[in-house]
Amino acid sequence: MNDILRRQFLTHVAQTSPSPMMIEVARAEGSFFYTPEGKRYFDLVAGVSVNNVGHGNKSVIEAVQRQAADYMHIMVYGEMVERPQVEYARRIAALLPAPLDSVYFVNSGAEAVEGALKLAKRYTHRTEMISMRRAYHGSTHGAMSMMGAPEGEEWKGAFRPLLPDTQAIEFNSFEELSRITSRTACVLCEPVQGEAGVRPPVDGYLQALRERCTEVGALLIFDEIQTGMGRTGEMFACLKYGVTPDIVCLAKAFGGGMPLGGFVASGEVMSTLQSSPTLGHITTFGGHPVCCAAGLAALDYLVDNDILSSVEHKGALFEDRLRSHPAVREIRRSGLLLAVELGSSERLYTIMSLFAERGIMSDWFLYCDTAFRISPPLTISDVEIEECCGIILSCLDTFS
Length: 400
Ligand SMILES: Cc1ncc(COP(=O)(O)O)c(C=O)c1O
Prior knowledge:
The protein is α/β, with parallel strands linked by helices.
C-alpha cells in the first residue's frame, strides 16, 4: 500500500466518516476488484447495486470510448437531439409498463428523487409528501427530507430546516395507508426497502398502496434506484410485484457504471414541467451522452445475454448455502439483493474485519447494522458464488 497516496487521500479527498475502508483499488474485472499488491476481493456490494453487468464489461467500455470520441457535452439537457439519450429513453419506455414513456435524465439518484418530487407537486398542485419509515432516497435537502422519521432523524436532524409538509408511514402497514389523503401530492416508496436492511413488500401491500393513491389522487413514486436494472430478477421491481407507479426513479446501475439518473412518467404528467414556469427543472449534465451510451450498452448486455433469467437462481443459491449456519438468524432477499442477519452489531463488526482480511467486500445498511449486504454483479457465476459462500461460512465459524 502506497503510504503517500493514503496520506494524500486523507488530506485532500473529503471524507464522509472518520473510518474509511482505505483499500486501494488497482483494477476490477467481473465479480472482483484487486489492490496494487494483487489482493483479490469478491465484490458483494457492486458499488451499492451499480455494477450489475460486472466490472470491466467490454461492451460498456467500447460504448464509452466510441461516444467519447464522437462527442461529449454539447448543450444543457433537453435542448439538443442526442442519439444515445433518445435511444436509451425509447428502450426504457418500452420496458416499463404503460403509460410510463417519458424519461427525464439527470445525474444521480438524489437528483432523480428531487425531480420526481417537484413533478408531483407541479402536477397535483398539492404540497404534502409522504415517504416510508427507514427509507433512504439520497442526501440532498429534498431527498433527505424524505428519509423516514423517526429513524432518519439521526442523519437529517442536523440539517433542519428541511422541506415542510412531509411525513413517513410504516412500510408494509395496511392500516397506515389511511394517512394518505386528498392533501397528499405523492407517496415515495422503494418497492423493496434497501437501506432498511432489505425489506421486500408483503403480499398485496404495493397493490393496496397503489389503490389508495389512485383513490385520493396522489401520485405514487417508486424509487427503483437500487432495485432497477435487474437487481430483483425482473428489469424493474414494479414488474416483479405487478404494480405500476406514476413515476419511477432510476440511477445506480442505470448508468452502467457511469453517473446517470432519471425519472420516468407518462408524457401527460411529465409535460407539466415544461411550462408555468418554463425551465422549472433544469440540469447541465443530465443525460450526458457518454453516460447514456454506457447505460444503453449495459442494458443491451443484460438483455442479449439473458442475465436476468438466472438472478433468482443465484440469489437462492446464496441463501441456500448460508441460511443453515447457526450464526445466521435470517436472510431477507429479493433476487440478488440480500441481507444476512446476524442479530448483533458486535458480530457484524467482527465479521466485517474477517471479510476484509479474507477478500470479501461487503457492507452493512444505513438503518441496519446487524446484517451484511450481498448485492454482487448480476453476472457472478455459480462457481464464484460457491467459492464466496465457502469463505463467508468459514468467517461465520468464528462464532461457533
Ligand atoms: C433507494 C435509493 N434511493 C436513492 C439513493 C441516492 O442515490 P445517489 O447516491 O445516486 O444520490 C440511493 C443510494 O444509495 C438509494 O439506495
